[in-house]
Amino acid sequence: MPRWRLPGEPTFDVLAILAAGVLVVIGLANLAAVGGVGTAVRQGGIAAAGFALLLASRRVRVRVLGVLAVLSYTVAVVMLAAVPLLGNRTKGATRWLDAGAFTFQPSELAKLGLLLLVAALLASARPAWQRFAGSLVVAAVPIVLTVLQPDLSTTALLVVVVVALMVIGRVPARFLLPVAAAAAVAAPLAVGLLRPYQVQRLGSFLAGSSQAAGGAGWAASQARIAVASGGWFGRAGHPLTDVLERYLPERSSDLAPASLVEQFGWVAGLAVLVAALVLVWRLATAARGARTSHGALVAGGLAVLIGAEVVVSVGGNLGLLPLAGVPFPLVSNGGTAMVVHLAAIGTVLGVRRDGARRALWAAPGRLRPRLVQSSALVLTGVLVTFAVAGGQVQAQQRPSLVAAGQEQMVRCLRVAAPRGEITARDGTVLAQDSAATDTGSAAVGVVPALVTPAELELVADVTGRPLDQLRAAVAAAPGTTLDLEVGTAPAGRAGVLRGSPDVIVTDEARRSYPTGELLAPVLGFVGVATAEQTARDPSLAPGTVVGRLGLEATYDAVLRGVDGRRCWYVTPAGVPVAPGPQLPAVPGADLRTALDMPLQRRLTDSLQVSLAGQPDPRAVGAAVAMDPRDGQVLAMASLPSYDDNIYGPPVDASALAALDARPGSPGLNHVTQVAVPPGSTFKLVVGAADMVTGTIPPMQVVPTGASYTLGGHTFANWRPMGPMNLPQAIGWSNDVYFYQLAARMGPGPIIDTARALGVGEPTGIDLPGEAAGYLGSPDTGEPWYGGTTVILGIGQGPLQVTPLQNARWTAAVSTGLLVTPHLGLTVVTPGGATTAVPVSPARPLPFAATLGPVRDGMRAAVRSGTAGWLAPLPVDSGAKTGTAQDGSLRAGSYDNWTTVAAPLDAPTVVVTSLVQGPGQGANSAGRIVVDGLSGYLAAPPP
User: Fold this and answer.
1) pLDDT tens digits, residue range 677-701?
2) d(CA 910, CA 874)
3) Over 90: is that where the pLDDT of 509 sits?
């Protein structure tokens, strides 16, 4: 049957020439995109010379192949031997010889020489063992010389050439198998010959790791990113592609396939694969049509060689094989490889032409290569598999790989979000960023690699720094600098720079507190997040300003906002080349509190006057006003206090040292963090316990007197008193009455009722670091005596409370509801949306209905008892006073308490005050309550 052939096939193989041309043209296009037009023109000139050599080689007669084999082999060996002496060392290897403006790689010529000479030996009529042995000797010389360069990738290809020729040249298996077995045994030893970068390539492939920039794993990752980024039609000419391609190492040689897909898309990649397959199949077909054994082996061997190069190159670029440093034939940059491959292709086409034109001269009984077309078929299957794998990368991993490619190209600066304001209930600003005030300032920086002369002139005008100094600073800065600080300016004046793409305006992080010491224990302060905070919260970037105390800490997540980013595209060396994506910061929300500023100022001023009259500098004072209906804290005064502006940031170190030296623990909030004995104010709790148990009926008159004796111990009254019932005993704070009541009732009911009123546990206020106080019990194992119960009846003994806890039980007794105190009212977003701060609902007391007599006692205290100075208030009120002995105070000093609810029939406010100092009863604590309530009741807040 006649063999099918294309028209004109005997004289010219159009498909092979066209396939080679497609590979060269696409390779030149990629080289022009990544290496510049000049480099592409130079490579194009070499390719033209290679095609001329191809056409010339095509006319070589088969009988000349032997001479050509010896000549090319000899020249290659001589040049390989000269490389160690005269070669150019690059990247740790000596592989090139310089010839003027050209660089020549002898190992590429060795491929052609070895192919021709080994094919000649195997095609000879000598015995099989001689052909086999001769081939091994001939192959050993260039292989050893190439190993010594070292160039293991080319060495591997030379071995592939020899093995392929032996297999298709029908060398008997009895010769091949022992050599294959010896190679398998010696393979582990070959690892010792690998250079560190080669071991890294292999390890990166096996482990799938991503190494640092320049490493093999990093190169493989960049190749996959490039393949995914190209899409179907590529992104050549796009500014981002120009930046991204710089991250792809060896983009014109070893990783040229990935580069051309990035530039011209999968369409170009598939065109290259199809062209390579066509070329391999035409070479394999030429092996069948050769009229000599030598020509057939040369054609088959070249088909296998080019096929192996394509498989290794494509597999490495897709991450399916280790990166072996094998360039893609005719596509990758390299003059020697281009010329040698085209000359070899021309030689095979000459073999094909000779066989077609002189079929009658075919040697009888000539050796026909085996498995050539089978190898081409396997190659086709492998490349189709690779194409499918690449398609899966495109379909499934493209978003993540493209994102990774974008991420690696940018370096970003954090844009701190403006922190939200804290305001009083009437909108008065209590805390805000300094940048929002007239006193705020901003740091001004530039991107040295990008800043323009016009931008520098504007920076000089705003910062007041001489232009010559700015230019010198920019010129001296490393090219990788992203933010070179060049000066400062008032925040308002720096606003004209904010639109400049290469100027960075950073507002100072300092927080402004207009009220200073008035509200510092409530508001707290901010500071740079500590290492522990950033470790606990990964969302906190280094340098983030966070709330450290007070409301600033409690509502930090609301006030802080979300930081933005300003990014620039950078080269792999880190030099900025263009502005990148910008993510605006989202300002924090504002917090509106329940604080009533007139009441806050009156309580604080009165507390200041009261403390000023105390002889002990360590004395503290506190006052709190709360709405008993829902727990809104209307005012919270704590002295001594501090100015939270000293915490900046940055912290004023000298002011902080002076603060630490002041007595009275000014850094504490004495309303929530200082617990002391409550004294007689606790009688409200004991009276409530009596109403629960009915131990002494509330209207029963009980003899009292000047003292009470139990077990040989006498407990004094604060003054002698006559018989009284419960309301009278509360009104006059009759200690003996409550001694007797506590002794009859026992500790259990008192402790249970105290717990029901929130004693011994935090109130739950929205401030950090609240003290729980202390409520002792016989159940805890501590020593407990009859006298312990007796003094517990008047708020002494194993009992300590904060002023806020005292106010809370006062409110609960007055209304029958136990509320959760809170300062935050609403959160207002930058867009104006308002959201109420969630608050725990008030909890009804189970004994609320029985508390009338206790409230009657509070009313009696104002009308005719220990709190008579409250009688002039414009509304009916109820109160309780107390004077507690405190072992932490100097002799003659007490914890002086007053707690008031008004109007008593339907309370809208509870005020509780504490002043440490000498005196009996309310001492100066009562005046604080009067001063605060008189103004508040006259003009209550909305």
Assistant:
1) 999 999 999 999 999 999 999 999 9
2) 15
3) no
User: What's the Cα-to-Cα distance from 808 to each of 314, 756, 904, 939, rounded to whole Å?
Assistant: 77, 11, 15, 23
Sheet hosting strand 88-90, strand order edge to edge: 88-90, 93-99, 102-104
- Give the mean model confidence (pLDDT) for residues 59-67: 71
Other beta carbons less than 10 A from residue 517's beta carbon: 18
Q: Of 725, 709, 627, 638, which Cα lies nearest the Cα of 673?
A: 638
* pLDDT of 472 above 80: yes
CA distance 671 to 767: 11
Q: DSSP assignment, residue 393?
A: I
How many CA atoms, within 13 angstroms, populate the side-chain half-sphere of residue 550?
A: 25
- Which residue in the block uniquely carries the two structure tokens 């000023």? 612
Q: Where are the beta strands (DSSP E) in 272-427?
A: 410-415, 422-423
Is 393:223 a contact under the CB 8 Å cutoff?
no
- Dist. CA 615–CA 868, nearest whole Å: 26
Measured between its terminal Cα atoms, the distance across the chain in Å is: 108
The neighbouring-strand residues paired with 103 are: 98
In a 13 Å sphere around the CA of 754, the CA atoms on its Cβ side amount to 29
Contact 910, 900 (CB under 8 A): yes
Contact 901, 814 (CB under 8 A): yes
Residue 511, CB-side half-sphere exposure with 13 Å CA sphere: 33
Do residues 636 and 823 make contact, with C-beta atoms less than 8 angstroms apart? yes
Amino acid at 606: S
Geometric angle at alpha carbon 258, from 255 and 263, rounded to 5°: 120
Taking the C-alpha atoms of residue 497 and residue 470, their distance in angstroms, rounded to an integer, is: 15
Q: Which DSSP helix (H) or strand (E) runs through 59?
A: none
The angle formed by the CA atoms of residues 145, 161 and 64, to the nearest 5 degrees, is: 95
Q: Which residues contact 921 (CB under 8 A, 6 or more apart)?
A: 718, 733, 866, 881, 883, 896
Phi then psi for 565, rounded to 5 degrees? -140, 140
Can you list the positions of beta strands (E) in 81-224?
A: 88-90, 93-99, 102-104
Question: Cα(572)–Cα(125) distance, rounded to whole angstroms?
Answer: 58
Cis amide bond preceding 727, omega within 30: no
Gyration radius (Cα) of the chain, Å: 46
At 481 the three-state DSSP class reads coil
State how far the Cα of 929 lies from the Cα of 803, in Å rounded to an integer.
Answer: 13
pLDDT tens, position by position, 558-591? 999 999 999 999 988 889 988 988 999 999 999 9
CA distance 344 to 302: 7
Coil, helix or strand at residue 542:
coil
Taken as a whole, the chain contains a residue count of 942
> Do the beta carbons of residue 873 and residue 900 sit within 8 Å?
no
- What confidence category does residue 8 fall into, taking pLDDT thresholds of 50, 70 and 90? very low
pLDDT of residue 400: 83
Q: By the 8 A CB rule, do 291 and 62 touch? A: yes
What lies within 8 Å, CB to CB, of 472 at 6+ separation is none
Contact 667, 692 (CB under 8 A): no
Q: Are 621 and 666 a contacting pair, CB within 8 Å?
A: no
Tokens of 688: 């409530």
Give the C-alpha separation, 596 to 582, whole Å: 41
Peptide bond into 322 cis (omega under 30): no
The stretches of 290-334 forming alpha helices (DSSP H) are 293-317
pLDDT (0 to 100) of residue 7:
43
Q: Which amino acid, 828?
A: V
Amino acid identity of residue 427, one-letter, is G
Model confidence pLDDT, tens digit, residues 716-729: 999 999 999 999 99
How far CA 332 is from CA of 314, 341, 466, in Å, comes to 12, 12, 52
Highest mean pLDDT among 205-209, 370-374, 619-623: 619-623
